[in-house]
Write a structure and sequence with these properties.
2 domains, six-stranded parallel β-sheet, four-stranded parallel β-sheet, 12 helices, 10 strands, peptidoglycan synthesis, glutamate racemase activity, Asp/Glu_race
Length: about 250
């Protein structure tokens, strides 16, 4: 069996796990640190420490390689993770960048505060093309999603604000620069005043990743805070009932 470790600050990385498991059979081990979510508002030092703790737990599962299903961790901690652990780490951010470079038009990035502060999308896409990249920090969305608020007046009001520049400039491509955001993709589309090409890096990764597949699919999901909301959201995101396990 190919053992793949997938991890995120909370529920968002399940969108990556879902897309991977649809197309590729393997032994998946997922850890969402929803006890400490969101990571996007934390210092780099905190993000690096928490990320290392996640890997230390998952690596006991005899992991062949890791998928960092969190843009914040990808842009802040991947260097330190690669230095400390002798394993391959795939960055979800790289997948979004790759797809944006292959599309026509400018790019609007919706992401966490930490991802925007790092300017990873902007620096690489503008450095390799003539595209203009606009970044929008969307700090409240992760909290809403973790609470199970996926639609309604409260989230619509926030999205109208976050999407102001995209709607004004009719920016052709929108990167969902946080793996939580595909969960509310329909709500995002509803608050756009035009038709945009929405890039979900999880779908890009699932389309392009290559590894030796297994005959069977096995999924184990761990979280740092197992509760009714996290269990219900996990079932909704994955499209089937999978019992969450606590790491404690």
């Amino acid at each position: 069996m190919t053992n793949i470790g997938v991890f995120d600050s909370g529920l968002g990385g399940l969108t990556v796990l879902r897309e991977l498991s649809k197309k590729h059979k393997a032994n998946y081990f997922y850890l969402g640190d929803n006890k400490n979510v969101p990571y996007g508002n934390k210092s780099n030092e905190e993000i690096i420490k928490l990320s290392k703790d996640i890997v230390k737990f998952l690596i006991k599962k005899d992991i062949d390689f890791f998928v960092i299903a969190c843009n914040t961790i990808s842009v802040v901690a991947i260097k330190e993770l690669r230095e400390e652990f002798d394993k391959k780490f795939i960055s979800i951010t790289d997948e979004g960048i790759k797809e944006a470079l292959n599309k026509n038009g400018d790019v609007f990035v919706m992401a966490t505060k930490a991802t925007c502060k790092n300017h990873a999308y902007k620096k690489i896409i503008e450095g390799r093309s003539s595209k203009k990249v606009y970044e929008e920090s969307c700090p409240k969305l992760v909290d809403y999603i973790e609470e199970g608020i996926l639609s309604g007046e409260k989230i619509d009001s926030q999205l109208k604000d976050y999407l102001t520049i995209a709607n004004e400039k009719k920016i052709e491509n929108i990167i969902l620069g946080c793996t939580h955001y595909p969960i509310i993709k329909k709500t995002i589309e509803k608050n756009l005043t035009y038709k945009a090409n929405i890039i979900d890096p999880a779908k890009v990764l699932a389309r392009d990743i290559v590894f030796e597949q297994d005959k069977n699919l096995n999924i184990e999901i761990y979280m740092t805070d197992v509760n009714e909301i996290s269990q219900d959201m996990t079932n909704k995101i994955m499209g089937k009932n999978i019992e969450i396990k606590s790491i404690y």
